[in-house]
Structure formats: structure tokens, C-alpha cells
Amino acid sequence: MKLFEYQAKETFRKFGIETPAGVLIKNAEELSDAMAKTSFPIVLKSQLLMGGRGKKGLIRLVSDEAQARKECGELFDSEYNVRKILVEQAVDIKTELYLSITVDPVEAKHMIIACGDGGVEIETLAVESPERIIREYVDPDRGLMPFQIKNVGFSLGLEGDLLKKFSAVLANLYKAFVSSDAELIEINPLFITGDGNIIAGDGKLSIDDNSDFRQPSYGKTRDYYDSDAEYEASLEGIPYLQFDGDISLMCAGAGLTTTVYDLINYEGGTVANYLEFGGPNYKKAVRAMELCLKNDSKVILVVTFGTIARADVMAEGIVDAISRLKPDRPIVTCIRGTNEEDASRILKEAGLVPLYDTEEAVRKAVAIAKGEKP
Amino acid sequence: MKLFEYQAKETFRKFGIETPAGVLIKNAEELSDAMAKTSFPIVLKSQLLMGGRGKKGLIRLVSDEAQARKECGELFDSEYNVRKILVEQAVDIKTELYLSITVDPVEAKHMIIACGDGGVEIETLAVESPERIIREYVDPDRGLMPFQIKNVGFSLGLEGDLLKKFSAVLANLYKAFVSSDAELIEINPLFITGDGNIIAGDGKLSIDDNSDFRQPSYGKTRDYYDSDAEYEASLEGIPYLQFDGDISLMCAGAGLTTTVYDLINYEGGTVANYLEFGGPNYKKAVRAMELCLKNDSKVILVVTFGTIARADVMAEGIVDAISRLKPDRPIVTCIRGTNEEDASRILKEAGLVPLYDTEEAVRKAVAIAKGEKP
Amino acid sequence: MSIFIDETTKVLIQGITGKEGSFWTNHMIGCGTNVVAGVTPGKEGQQVEGRDVYHSVRRAVDKVEVEASMLFVPPRFTKDAVFEALDGGIKKIVTVADGIPLHDAVQIRKAAMSEGAMVIGGNTSGVISPGRAMMGFFPYWIERVYKQGRIGVMTRSGSLTNEVTAMVVKAGFGVSSLIGIGGDPVPGTRFAEMLPLYEADDQTDAVVIIGELGGTMEEECAEMKGLGIFTKPLVAFLGGRTAPEGKRMGHAGAIVSGGKGSVKDKIKAIESVGGKVAERPRFVGDYLKELLGDRVR
Amino acid sequence: MSIFIDETTKVLIQGITGKEGSFWTNHMIGCGTNVVAGVTPGKEGQQVEGRDVYHSVRRAVDKVEVEASMLFVPPRFTKDAVFEALDGGIKKIVTVADGIPLHDAVQIRKAAMSEGAMVIGGNTSGVISPGRAMMGFFPYWIERVYKQGRIGVMTRSGSLTNEVTAMVVKAGFGVSSLIGIGGDPVPGTRFAEMLPLYEADDQTDAVVIIGELGGTMEEECAEMKGLGIFTKPLVAFLGGRTAPEGKRMGHAGAIVSGGKGSVKDKIKAIESVGGKVAERPRFVGDYLKELLGDRVR
Predict the structure, then answer these.
(1) What's residue C258's pLDDT?
(2) Which of A355, A310, A312 is nearest to A334 (CA)?
């Protein structure tokens, strides 16, 4: 689960990493209070999970009250889903660094990534100037050792008091990374201020979903999602992505669903939504179909090839969903796997035409989406 | 540093391991208050660092107030250095276990030792019935894993609720071991009570002296030492052991001092004290000689063969100590190593006869102790 | 023997008395697997499918020779169970748990590497050599997917594996050993680490990789082939060719970022060393025919 | 080369700018040691004895080839410094620090073992091959102790080593390589682990062990000799024969408990495999004469 900047910064502060003085506001009315607690110039930072907020004009530096009120209103009214703004004191920046920690799946280690060019997109830099990226690998059993912190600090060209302060930041960031079961923790940029302090300018923190049980719950709120449908799907634990095409996918298995997505594109079709209800969700056909029906799609395509997710259970679920939801659009089914003969019988009894070949099913769905009679 | 039972039990409780209800008293007058807080039968446990307290009659089970007062008085007045008594509620014991953690220097792992025979001396059992001892090795980087706790528990024949409670005790004991930088942490016996609880009956905890800087200070008090001299020496950081023979050792280097101790015994002499002032203490000749002079020894034997502990500095220290303390007994010197020529000159100028061969020096000291003129 | 496991491999089942554990133990035996014992703490003395149950791995290996362990253990206890198996000296471990915490997965792989063991999974159906043995849960009774033959299959998926393998069988081939390394971001074993085993296996003529966008596992395979460590024909099917950048589509490990892990890169890497990449599952069968010609299937 | 180090071994000094570090760097060079560089965080750009100082081991090994590292680092930072040396790929490490926390020492030895490295110390004077090279601090200028020759010496002590080695020299022999494994309860390397190196060393005719009560290191040596892994003459001197049980006499590791670690046991073990145990330092020379006869000394 990706957290917002303000949440990442809360975590930073909890682990002793300094952030700019700031106040989180939920609407334009709260701006007065926030301004009372900060002094100009201030930065208005829209709390959105997407990257490139700066380029999209979602972060604004303002130098007086009138400007602040105007720009704050603009942000809340923008085309993006801005529900919270972090109002932060501007910082006297001397230089900017990049610092993050993630896992390296090949080495099976924690990987610290640092760079003297703060504010850049690290992925871009990795392609364009890989030699500027500093990497330090940490044995997960041993944890981060002091010499490794120094290695990073010296590679960044830090010395003396600044090296000491940076060492504390990195040690604390590592603690936060491990304690939070993070997939990624990132400070970009990490400010070095004119008076020699080190402050987290921006923050990313992504928590491993599989570690929910041992992490404080951040609660799934609408804020985290681009659309209502994605939010609703997440509450059900159903992987769901919103697109704006014609065909609603209702497939099982991440790899198979992705493959069906590809095949639709190959065949000239368009996808209305990616929806995967395999694994532990394979009995959630009703909820899955409800989600699909909220789209303006022209057809629902069901493709499964399950093992534990039995074909007969899948088929029953689809039939049950149809009888409950009475969908207003045709449904193409291609349900295979354990007990697939029973599945075929169930589908036929419900008046559906079971298919057995994925490509055939995809072609059928694309044809329907293009106007062919089901 | 070895801690007293009551201190070990404080640590146990801090880490969530149950101990019998108890009150520590410093004199017989405090017994009334202790009895008010417990109920009979109670156990009076003399707080001494030596082993075999039970056999020496230093632990007494008493069943009424009169008996308690009588035995408590006896303990405080005993020939041993009883300065504190732990007054504990007696426990309804069903069975007793042994449980300890130490380090294994060969495997470089933490080693859990457990045994179904609580209360026995584990070293004796190791010789007599080694097959009864359960060992579990813990990787210090990974820490104790749940399956290892279960391994120990099942080997002890525990199941169900008792296994669960034991697992908590062992997990907590391991945390205490690591957090305390312990050389040894031991619960012996570990009681299983009639009502199915697990309680630490006795406790040993020995903290690594090299880890002082990161451990809470227990303070060096007279309580921990068998004699005043050993206590005083410990305050100086000088390794010192009290014996009752004729020759005071004032040597440098642990191995060499031990060897001189052996050689004196071979030559028919007896040792008044073992004293080692090498390493960082090599400039403490005055304090070392003061300690020696407190004994009824007949001669002081100085043997060194130093590298960083320079011979000339040693010799100067001895000469300085003599001029300050004016010792009432002869001093035999055998000071070698870095700058040994200077050392010889310094000793000769002070009227001493420098020797160069350890055995010769030992023979000389033994002869003096037996009455020969220096 | 085949890759990883065959009908002689002595297999222990950790979590054998659980619902899933006992159900699939029955099927593993049905598939030919040599299940020798099981472990469930607190259940020693019981039997499942005629196999003795022990309290712990250590107590099991004290009594019975064990070469591989199959874990039916909930994700949050998987790390402990894997470490227990490693502690018992077991060098082949399969864990099907879906939902292993990421940081646990890192430690699991780290431990396996440092102890020279191979952990397959999590989030996988496991390993199967059709007609001989399996560790995991495959509908081995569906002959149009799990037909014995001479094609090795490695996969990050579940349902997609059935889809692709059915095409392999439809083209007239069968499967020698199928290894599901799992869909997690940090699998215990990576594709490339299996290739030397397939290379050495005289029952495998070619290998099919069922991969997807994200990560670098397919690129690592290409590297192995480029270095000549793997020389047999290689055909890949990769899901997510048309996936939009930055969206998490597919498994948790399947995210394309900064141009790395894109299917385009993977195709380039594989084709540059003479491997084939099939655009559709069906084409996998076509490429195998092309590469193997009329060789015994 | 001799055991562990000779005049060609490329030695790095960690903590080179400190008082002890710079003083003994001068002497190590004086003894013949090939000191190639030094490390002190924050002091890169300086020189000590004409050798470049780097911020870190990694920066040093990037520039200079290094085979061994000598640590002049306070005990509480020793674990970090050893791990840093291991991280730099250095396989021979000597640490003289006296006062390394016990739990740190366990992790140091653990790390060395798992990375196939050898850590000598702590609480030792180090390693010397007289007339050729040393890592540590020995008064190598005292010829009646540090005379070059063909006897290997291993020791847990400092001053006692001078005492015993002087007797070896007095008897007409010299020292090939002297290894001080240190007096701590958990030394990085144990006696028995050095024996194969002495066995292979064509400059060593016999080995003298200077041990003491406590622990099982001398017994492990006897086992190596019993197994035929070490076949050269072995003479031991053991301090603490008459030490009372249960008292901590000698080094921290030197405590006899429950009949284990007594000098009596050690003597029995060594003699049972044909080794000699000298009751007095002087006898060590006598036994060497007896065992080596008129062999070149």
C-alpha cells in the first residue's frame, strides 16, 4: 500500500528524521489556521499518490496570503482528486540529495540507493547516468552497519558534521524501513539547508500488503484510489484497474488476466476494466460482476483455468450473479480447470454458451463489443 | 560480572518471566515486613554468589514465624558473607526443569541448554548423563526462531498449554540474554507448579564485563566480593585473588601470572595473593603493592615480560612504590621486555637485585618465604 | 531423476494434518510422490494417509530419511517453517503460501542461498513431473495440461500455466518437469537458477518460460543462455506486452518502472540469444514444433 | 610464504592515524611488513609513514590491492571494523583490541566462518614471522625472543609468550610464525584452525602451543593430531596446572567448571596423541631438542 507524502513524513518524524514545519488541510477553509502556524514563503503540496506532481502544477510555492488562498482554491478544484493539501514552510535549500531503501530480489538483501542529484527521478537517472547512483546492500539478518552508512556518506562527498547528521538520517530511515515492512521508503529530495541541517523534502512510503497483520492499519479510504470502482474493489480485496474501453474482464489468475488483456488489444478490442477474482476470491463472482456492471462496457468476458479455484464453483458463481444482477449486457464465458465438465453443464443449463479456447472467447467478446450479435 | 539471585530475578520479571512472590531484606529486623507480604511456608534464601548454597544450609524452608526469626538470625550471623536474604513464598512444585543460555565459542552461536532434571548441577550432569541434556544452537544474527523454541519444548516432553507457557519463558529468557550482554543466564530450577504455571525458582545472570558501556551499571559494591582486598582491587580494575600463603604475586600478564603461581607451587611455596597489573594497569605499581602489603605475606614477587608494558616503566613504578610505601618485606624482581636494560639500571640504583630468569626468581622468593635471608 | 523431484524423492509434508495439507497429501501420493512423513506441532503419533506425523522437522528427520519438504503453512509462519526445514538439513523446499511478508521472503531467499538449498515459492502451485511426482497442488488428472513428455516448463503464474501448457500438449508435446517459482516479488528461487538443472536433465529437450512484465528474471535466463550455460531450445511466453506503464497488473512483482522490466526489454534479451518469444499462448506450441522438428516428444 | 603473513603480504591498517596505529605502523614497516595503505574515516588524503590514508576500506581496496587488514580500533567499534574488512573482501584480519564485547565476538567469529575468512584476536599482540613481517605489536627487536627460525608458536597469552619463546630460543631454536589468537573467551580463530597452515608450511618443523586452563582449544588440537591432519611434533605449555577450580585465573576464557577445561584433561588429550606437555617454560626447549634431534633449527 502506497502512503501519501504526509503519512510518509509522519513516519519519518516518528523515527527522528526532520521534515519541514507543516500543517495538513482538508479544505480551503483550513488554510487560515495553517498559515497561522507557518510563515511565508510556504509550499502548497497536493496529497496525491501519482508521480510528477510538480510538473502537473500540483505543488505551488506562494509568498503571501492572497496568493496562497487563490492557489489553494485552484488545487482543491483541480481536475485531480485533491482531497488534502500539505501546507509547508519553505526551506532554505543549499543542495538536494536522493535517498531510498528497497529490497533487491536477486541478492536477497536490503538495498540503499543514494545520489547527489536530489529531486531527479531515480529511474530516469538509472538509465541515463547509472554511474551517479550509489548502492549499498544490507544483509537483512545483520542489519545496517555503521561502516555502510559511512560508505554511503563518503560516496555522497559528505564530511564532518554533515556526515554525522546524514548518518543519523540513514540509520533512522533504515529502522523505519524495517519496522514498517516497507517495499520502498524514499526521501527525494533530501534537503541540505543553508544552515547545515538535513531535512526530508518529500517522502514516499509503500507498505507491503502481506505484512498488514503486523503493521498499524492505515485504513483503506477513497483518498488512495483514482476511481470509486477501484476503491470498492479494494475493499473486497479484488485486484481491479479502471480503463475506458468496451470489454469488462472478469478473469481468474493474475497472469491469465494480463494475457487476456493483451489478447484483446491484439484483436483490436478495448478494455473497460481489469478484474481478477482468482485465488481466495474465486467465490466472489457476484461482487465482481457488480463492479463490471458499473462500467459502460458492452460485454463481460469471463476467462478462467483454475486448479483450486474449481471450474464448477466458478460457473455456479457466474450463474448466481446473473440471476441476481440481471446484467444488461452479454457475457462470454471460457471456464476451464478442475471439474470443467460440470462447469459446462451448469453454464449450458443457464443458457450460456461455454467456450474452451481463450483466443476464441476473446475474439467473440471483441466482435460483440464491435456490434456483432452475441 | 556475576549478579545475585535477586538481581537475576529482577531481570526475569522485567522480561516477563514469573518468579515467586518475594521480599529482599538486609537485616533480621526487616523480616517482619517481609513476612507480612508473604504467607507461610516461606523460603529464606541467602544472597551469595557461590554455588551449592542449599548444601551449605544457606537456603531454609520455614513454616512459621518463630522458626523464620530463628533461622534468619542464624543466616545473617553465619560464617559466610550474608548481607541480603531473599524471603520468598514457597511454591507448589510439581516438576523442575533446567534452562540456560550461554555462548558456544566453537560454533559462534548462542546455546540454549535445557534438561528435564531441574535443580541438578548441569556440569555434573554433563559428565554423568550427557544424553539427558538438550542443546539448541541459535544463530546470533537471526535470533531465536519459534521452531527452535518448540524443539526444546518437545524435547522436554511438554505439550499443550504448558508448551505455550514454556515457549513464552524461553523467548523472554533469550531476549534477556541478548539485551543484557549476558555470558550466562540460567533458571535452575524452573518450576512447573501444581496449577500448571511456570516459575523461575532460582536465577543466575552473569554480564560480560566488556559490555559495561552499553549495560546499566550494577555498581561494584563489597557484596560481590569474598574479601575486602578483592573488592578494593576490583575498584582499581586489577585482577586479584586472595589466598592464605606466604608469597604475594605482583606480576604482569594473565598467563605469566598464572604460570608463576604454578611454579611457586612446584617449588613448595605458597601464594598469598594472585595479582596481575599488566596491560592497561602497568602504571599502577603503587596501588598493586599496597594491596600486597595488606596480606601477611613474607615476600613480594614481581615477574614481568612486557611489550607495551615497558620494563623501564615497570621498574620505575616498583621503585616509586617502595619509596612511598616503605614495604616491611623483601621484594624479588624479574622485570624483562621492552627497554629491559634501563629497567635493570633503575632497579640496581634503588638497591634491588634484578633477576632475569623466572624460575630463579620463584626459587628465590620461596627460599625467602621459608626463612632464607634476602 | 527429473528436475527437482521424481518418484523416488523422499518428501516430508509440513502442516500435513491441516485441511489443505491432508487433502493434497492424498493427491501427491496419487500422483506418485514418495511422501515419507509429515509434521504438525502437537500432533505426533497421528497418521495421515498412513504416514507418521511428528511434532517437528528435527524429530521427523531423526526417524526418517528426508530429501525434500512441502510446506502447507500459513504465510505468516512460512519463514519459521522454511528455517526449520533448512535446520533439518533439507535442501529442497516448496512453499505454496500466498501472502508471505516481503521482508520474510528476503530472509528466506537469503537463508536458502547461504545454506545451498533451493526454496520454490511462495505463491505458487509448486512443482510437478507429470506421471511421476508432484509437490504442490496441480490438477494432474487433466491430461490436456499435465501430460508426461519432454518439455520443461517454468512459470510465475497459476492459471496462465494451465493455459500455456495446454497449448504445449495440444501441439503434441508433454511436460518433463514443471516448476512454479511463484508470483511474489522475491521468490525463493529464480528462473535462471533452474536452467542448469534443465540443461543437465536428459528427460528435457526444451524449456518454456511463462513470464510476465516486471523484474529481471527473464533477462537473467537470456544471460544464462548467452553464456552457454543453457544450450537447449528456449521459448518464452510473456504476459503484459500491452500493459500500461506504472500500473500494477499481474502479480505483485509485475510492475514496470523507469523502462526496466518491460516486456519489450525481455523480448529483446531473449531473442538476442536465439530464444523465441511467443505473442500468444498458442504460438508456444508452434515454436516448439519449429525448434524441435520431428524429435521424439 | 610463512603462516598467515610474510614480507609480500599486502597489509591495510584500519585506524592508522591513531596514536597506537601510527606508532605500530612504523614498527610493522620496520619489521618488514608490506603496509600498502591505511583507513581512518574523515582522514582521506593524509599519509602515515608514506602510506595513503582512505576514508573507508571500500575506498582503499578500490585503489590498492589488499590481502590482510590490521585493526587498531577501540573494542566497541571492532565488530563494525571487522565487518567492514570482510565486506572489502579481505580474508585475513588481525584485531588487537582488548575488551571486545562477548556478543560482538560471537558475531565476528560467525561472520568470519561464513565468509571463509580468518580473524585473529581480539586481545592479542597479533601475528609475527620474525625477520619477515608482523601484524600487531611485538618487541621484535628483542632477539632472545623474536629470533627467526623453524618453530611455529601459537598462544593465548602476551607476556607468557615472551617467557616461553625465550626458552625456545635459548634452546637454540628460532620462530617461524607466531600467532597470538588472543585471551578472549571467543577468539576469532582457534588453535586447531591454524594447525593445517603449520602442517603445510615448509618453514615450520614443529609447533609449540602456549595454552592455559579453560575452554577446549588444546583438546581440539589433540584431536587434529589424532586424526592425522597435523603430523609435526607438538609441544604444549599450559598455565594454570595448580589453579583452584572455579576461580577465574588467567584470561576471561580461563575458568574450569564441572571438570571441563582442566589442565589435567588437556595434558591427557595431548599426550594421548603423542604430543608433549612441558611442566615449566624451560622444558619446552628440552622437548623440542628431544623431538627434533639435530635437525636444522
Answers:
(1) 46
(2) A355
